[in-house]
Design goal:
Blueprint (H helix, E strand, L loop, with lengths): L4 E4 L3 H12 L4 E4 L3 H10 L15 E4 L2 H4 L4 E4 L3 H10 L1 H4 L3 E4 L12 H8 L4 E6 L4 H5 L4 E7 L4 H8 L4 E6 L2 H23 L4 H21 L4 H4 L2 H12 L4 H11 L10 H10 L8 H10 L5 H9 L9
Parallel strand pairs: 1-2, 1-4, 2-3, 4-5, 5-6, 7-8
Antiparallel strand pairs: 6-7
The structure holds nicotinamide-adenine-dinucleotide and SN-glycerol-3-phosphate.
The site of nicotinamide-adenine-dinucleotide has 24 residues, from α1 and α4.
Catalytic activity: sn-glycerol 3-phosphate + NAD(+) = dihydroxyacetone phosphate + NADH + H(+); sn-glycerol 3-phosphate + NADP(+) = dihydroxyacetone phosphate + NADPH + H(+)
EC number: 1.1.1.94
Function: Catalyzes the reduction of the glycolytic intermediate dihydroxyacetone phosphate (DHAP) to sn-glycerol 3-phosphate (G3P), the key precursor for phospholipid synthesis.
């Protein structure tokens, strides 16, 4: 029988979404590119590597055959942003004529493009949407209450909202696809900075200041690229910024925390904010985006932690609303 939803990418988030949707009664096929990984998940009925302890419900099938997942009319793309172009290019024939829901949060290095813009380049005419907002994979997989933004341009938003929402997964519909993606991408950069601040012992007051100024920075950049201010105040922007900057369940936060402590970050984890910081900083004005540029410089070891702090604090005093 044709699945309702295909999930491409069997990491933590793809697996969590597949579990939640199958729990809600949908027929879901989860695709992993690696044959052995797919077989192991199918046998264990669990993604031991990325989401241990979350059992697969009935209605969730696992495959390494992308054609099987792509029978579904709706495909959730849950891979790291830097790999999205490769995934879409390799399987473009299967992805055309499907509703493609980008679930990744980042900006492509080199092009500065958002996930749906990458999809539009690789698959001209692609019908895209964005699922984003404050959510840890483990929370979604365990059926904890979660509210997300589903951003859809044009027609079909309500139908998609109904198809993907469930009792525990509450979806708010939005139409500002660009704004929803900028908020989700940039909050990861600010979360790295928040982790650095706490890891270095600069204190919670400093983190609050950084989150607030970081949010102002998100607004400046995102609105200059076409985002609507109201979108940034929503789940995809402010909501996700709060979650990611305040929880050590966040990989971006933990990455920064390790750097702040002078420890080596865990490089086996997907930490979207690293490449996003570099993607933005490569042609940014540091006066407009001081935190993002400093995060990029710190990650590239162009400045020390102490230098980064002093450079940010010694900038000319300015009007808060400037
Ligand atoms: N984990 C979360 O809590 C969470 C929550 C919301 C959003 N996200 C977003 O979801 C995206 C994926 O994150 P994740 O947590 O699932 O990462 P992850 O590291 O757990 O998994 C990424 C998966 O993508 C697969 N992959 C990579 N390149 C691929 C390719 N070319 N083709 C097919 N598969 C490929 C990897 O094999 C891996 O299984 C990120 O953009 C992240 O910001 C994650
Ligand atoms: O673990 P992180 O830092 O990638 O954050 C996961 C989600 O984006 C939080 O909403």
């Amino acid at each position: 029988m044709r699945p309702d939803i295909g999930v491409l990418g069997a990491g933590a988030f793809g697996t969590a979404l597949a579990i939640a949707l199958a729990q809600a009664g949908k027929r879901v096929v989860l695709w992993a590119r690696d044959v052995e990984q797919a077989a192991a998940m199918a046998a264990a009925r669990e993604n031991v590597a990325r989401l241990p302890g979350a059992a697969f419900p009935d209605g969730l099938d696992v495959t390494a055959d992308v054609a099987m997942a792509a029978q579904a009319p709706v495909l959730l793309l849950a891979v790291p942003t830097q790999t999205l172009r490769g995934l879409a290019g390799a399987h473009a024939a299967f992805l055309a004529d499907r509703r493609l829901v980008a679930c990744c949060k980042g900006v492509e290095l080199g092009t500065g493009l958002l996930p749906t813009q990458v999809l539009g380049q690789v698959i001209p005419g692609a019908q895209t949407a964005v699922l984003t907002g404050p959510s840890f994979a483990a929370d979604i997989a365990r059926g904890k209450p979660t509210a997300l933004t589903l951003a859809v341009e044009g027609a079909g938003g309500e139908a998609l909202q109904a198809a993907l929402a469930s009792h525990n997964l509450r979806l708010y519909l939005a139409h500002d696809v660009v704004g929803a993606q900028w908020g989700g991408a940039l909050k990861n950069v600010i979360a790295i900075a928040a982790g650095v601040v706490l890891g270095a012992g600069f204190g919670e007051s400093a983190r609050a200041a950084l989150m607030t100024r970081g949010f102002a920075e998100i607004g400046r950049l995102a609105q200059s690229r076409g985002a609507q201010a109201e979108t940034l105040w929503g789940l995809s922007g402010f909501g996700d910024l709060v979650l990611t900057c305040t929880s050590d369940k966040s990989r971006n936060f933990r990455h920064g925390q390790a750097i702040g402590r002078g420890e080596a970050p865990d490089l086996t984890q997907t930490v979207e904010g690293v490449m996003t910081a570099h993607a933005i900083a490569q042609d940014a004005d540091p006066d407009m985006l001081p935190v993002t540029c400093m995060v990029s410089a710190l990650l590239r070891e162009q400045v020390s932690l102490e230098q980064a702090k002093d450079l940010l604090l010694s900038r000319p005093l300015r009007n808060e609303r400037g």
